[in-house]
UniProtKB/TrEMBL annotation:
PTM annotation (2-(S-cysteinyl)pyruvic acid O-phosphothioketal): residues: C122
Gene source species: Micromonospora tarensis
Substrates-to-products reaction catalysed: phosphoenolpyruvate + UDP-N-acetyl-alpha-D-glucosamine = UDP-N-acetyl-3-O-(1-carboxyvinyl)-alpha-D-glucosamine + phosphate
Gene for this chain: murA
Binding site for phosphoenolpyruvate: K24, N25
GO MF annotation list: UDP-N-acetylglucosamine 1-carboxyvinyltransferase activity
Protein name: UDP-N-acetylglucosamine 1-carboxyvinyltransferase
Amino acid sequence: MTDDVLVVHGGTPLEGRIRVRGAKNLVSKAMVAALLGDSPSRLFDVPKIRDVEVVRGLLGLHGVKVTDGTEDGELVFDPANVESASTDQINVHAGSSRIPILFCGPLLHRLGHAFIPDLGGCHIGPRPIDFHLQALREFGATVEKRPEGLHLSAPNGLHGTKFALPYPSVGATEQVLLTAVMAEGVTELRNAAVEPEIIDLICILQKMGAIIKVHTDRVIEIQGVPKLHGYTHRPIPDRIEAASWAAAALATRGHVEVLGAQQADMMTFLNVFRSVGGEYEVTDARAPKLGDPGQEGGIRFWHPGGELNAVALETDVHPGFMTDWQQPLVVALTQARGLSIVHETVYEQRLGYTEALNSMGANIQVYRDCLGGTPCRFGRRNFKHSAVIAGPSKLHAADLVIPDLRAGFSHLIAALAAEGTSRVYGVDLINRGYEDFEAKLADLGAHAERP
Ligand code: EPU
């Protein structure tokens, strides 16, 4: 643990420009989709983060040749020799990511059986996979839970089905898509998640030869096809990372331009950012031409000076305010005058990190009640899932231990905003989702170093 610490000298506004690449929550799924093709796929703008390494390792174990392309961040997947891997080999990746659960459909199609190790990911609630398994059974898969992991087979092949999700889960929607595209017949998924990363996955599958209709009211219809080919794709940029740097700019009274950030995918965040009192400007991309070097698109975020405003917000599925935007923004809300309210409706235990902020001088109370109008599954189940943030609070330095990815980034922002020197332990966890974050901190003028 002692090596895994960042010493942060806070109190300096972040100033400068950084770039975000392909969305973590799309890229890893796009990599899994490559398993379905009968020819190579090519993915651009792949960030160097741990989830990518885990999926690359798992694909390799299943015979997919993964090589670096000529462009920085380009990966090429050759699925010509897909083969089974031993449970021991696969279990090397146990507990390291949640993506392995999405290998079910593609492996069942390619091999007729699949073994899925124990999942990892952030500890932000129980994170069950019941919707995934229920959907796979509906397609005709047999699922056996054994101590070492999940064994699946499809003795009679996979068949289209009508299925309604109890909640618009991102992962379960992806599970259905990755399975239905090559299942025999038509699948109708109701109450599907429609996050931009899911729409981008649908674009990839369509490029591969899939037939997918996205209807209104969260209904997705997939007509199975017998064969898919490889794709070439440049993924949507990471809107969670972009919002995290925006929140860091606001909390440190700085000015950060996030190249690659896209307005359309961040509309809900931008509305809240403006309501809090932050300012932003969208710069559209312009292709270079004679006499004009062109311009890379992005969004500049800054603190305009003066006081920030308290707001009330609820996290929700798309098009609502993302649960992953919540933790970084709350740090900025500790600097707003008045009472801000945050009602977390996606995960039941995603406010634990507020204790660390309180240890730095913030004034945040968490409640079991639903402090918001969105019908929420947690109110009657006794989870502390609403927060009231009283501000502004002067943050002071502290020793912090990072509990999970997004909370970790919020700890980091708090340390950057606080007066004095903080020690942030467990920072390697941030590498799971934020590419080169230490280099980006340096580019933004932060005073942070490994001891
Ligand atoms: N849920 C179930 N049963 C299931 C699946 C989900 O009850 O079978 C519940 C979950 O417990 C949770 C809710 O449904 O309360 C939403 O979960 P969802 O399935 O949508 O989340 P996920 O697919 O596991 C992805 C992202 C998360 C992001 C959520 C919500 C990836 C790898 N992860 O998780 O990202 O918070 O969607 O947008 O795509 C992160 O990047 O730090 C992260 C946690």
